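tool=predict chain=A
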Amino acid sequence: MPKAPRRPPQLRGRIFRGSVAVSRGLLTRNDLRSSAWRPLFRDVYADARVRVTHRTRCAAVGRWLIPPGAAIAGRAAAALYGCATPGQSEPLDVLVPRETRIGPTAGLRVHHGEIDPGDTVNRAGVTVTSPARTCWDLARWLQVVEAVVVIDALLSSRLTDVPALREYALSRAGRRGWRSLLRAIDLADAGAESPQESRTRVRLVLAGLPRPQTQWIVTDQGRFVARLDLAWPQFKVAVEYDGLWHDDPEQFHRDRRRLNRLLGGEWIVLHATAKRLREDFDGFLAEVRAALRARSRSPWTR
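tool=predict ok
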């Protein structure tokens, strides 16, 4: 029968530095390789029975791996605000003061930069970049579509707003990334309700289409008919991201029924799916463009 791994009571349910546990005689280096402990980062371990969350990983990084004055940043910061869902194995972005050197560390993406007063806040014991600074870094570090996806979520959660972000960007005019933030702000929309809705909207706008309205309410003689993900109400054209993303078959069928009511009227409703956007975005774009062009010549749009 295999020997049960050592589990000193001082370490049960804890996250700890492996070197400290070894120096105190609680474990050996060989013990750290057992199934009782889970490596999180270099020399940082967790009791394997502990549920490791994003906040847990960020707290460990803040406590043991980054110097004073540094902060969790980028998508990792947005996830602490509840506005992104990084994968468990995705490296965590950290922002380190420009003058501070820190070597490469597995599991971290280290960014050096100037950190102004007010750029960091304490969130549940973790030092994290402020919502405005998080948006600035996202605009600098990510491709514009993915940056706007997260900025949309921060706006939707009312952690910041467009005027505040614009003021933040303009107050840093001339510094690296301020124009990128302004561009992302111009494309952002607090009405987006999912990352895929944001991606669809931004890609359509970047392709040259007029900016759609988000969550547009359609009524019939004062009665609610539908709420559309993206709409050009002046043309009565809409785009709906396929509702299967929410894993609720009943909701999907309810969505289809309400859209059928629109299809029987004056609206054209085009459906986007993850597969279509991934494999045939140009074809989908052509369909939306054709619908807008056709409706721009219709009598009720003049």
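The CA atoms of residues 139 and 181 lie 5 Å apart. The mean pLDDT is 89.
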